[in-house]
Amino acid sequence: MAAAALERVLGAVELSCACCLQHFTDPVRLTGCSHSFCRPCILQYCKGRQRAGCPLCRRDFQLKDLQPNRELAALVSLIPQELKQGELETGDEPKPSGAVACNDRSLARQRPGEKEEEIWDISKQVEMTIETIHILRKDLSKAKEYASQIKSQITKDFCCMKEYVERQERNTLTYIEQEQKAAQQKMEETIHQLCVEVSELTDIKAQTSNLPERHNYEGSPSTMNKITLDEKLDVVKSAVEDLKRKLEFLLLEKYARQFPPVQPPDLYQETNVCSLSPEPAAKNPETMISSRFSQWAEDVTFDLTRVYERLAVTAQNRKVMVSSHLTGYEPSPKRFCISQVMCSQSFSTGCHYWEVITEHSDGWAVGVAHEMIGRRHKLGRTEHSWCVEWLGAKKQLSAWHRDQETLLHNDKPLKVGVFLELQKKTVSFYSITDKEMLLHTFEINTSNPLYPAFWLYSLERNGSLTISHTNRR
User: By CB atoms within 10 Å of each CB, which of 14, 200, 331, 386 scores lowest?
Assistant: First the structure.
């Protein structure tokens, strides 16, 4: 009777794990849904994941929430040994019906759940990726639209600027034409009046050989009505040159980094320094060397590895300008720490000549220096550097070598010529106008190669030096 009652109780309670289909081994309960499984089966099912879905109802649970099911374990312990032994004996049969071990059954039962979980994760990733692509496409469309608006606005702005410049050009040319016509009319009137006077004087001469002393002319219309056309035109030309220079400074100061180069840089020119001069220096007659030294003229250019970071080099490396911001040159161990620059070319024998336009700087030094001049050594203050210098505050021209100053009683040169005679071991500096005027000559006491070198005064003011283009005979 007791055995029959026990069999009925065991038949009414589910004592088999849903994973391995065998009687429970160390049963545990899921706190969320209260389903029970063998501890080895549920751990194998989770495969180390801290969170998973119930194999029966898919409700989420965490491994930390597993609780031992002691009641179920007590009932399993009442199962007759004969039944358990029968299950063990069938364990060696090849058929899976009750013959596969708990872990194998667990693997077989858990794969569908794992696959669903993996499919769900992949679906989420696909969904998120599609959403990201959608957002990026919207951003791309907005970027294109914004760039189009900016381009349209820039085009309008430049059209307005071009219209303004063209209008000023027309007005200036009209003014020059009007002044020329007015001057021409005055000249014609003066010529007519002088012709009348010549005719009158000829008649008087014919009538009498002696003119009365009282008939003296105090002056002629040509002196009383002096024409100042040249002066007016010079004022206009100067104003246009000043505007051009200010625009060049503005472009360099504000937009040098943003604008692409106007023309391809030289082989030795860094790509991140743009040229603001659309015309080659050779086409600018103002910078051509035509002096008696032109047979020794050298094509020298500024070295971008030996220029101070607040000096910008433009115009095919022939013009150096003071900049209010760092110019972004590549790092160089030879770069000056003060407002100086050297040329790329050096000379150790022969005669060499170059000219520098200095009129657009309030303070400057032009000279030569040995390659090993210190990054903080000012030109003319060392044993192996020589220069002439104009200092704006003192308005004084002087020559410098070994930190010794020689005062030169000359006005500020608008262009300086440098003549290096290495056979004679001399370097001479000239003020260049319509002729060459010697400023100073140094005796040089070095056999090392010498480089053209320059210094610009006051980084608070716009200033520039320009190397003239060669015109060797």
Answer: 331
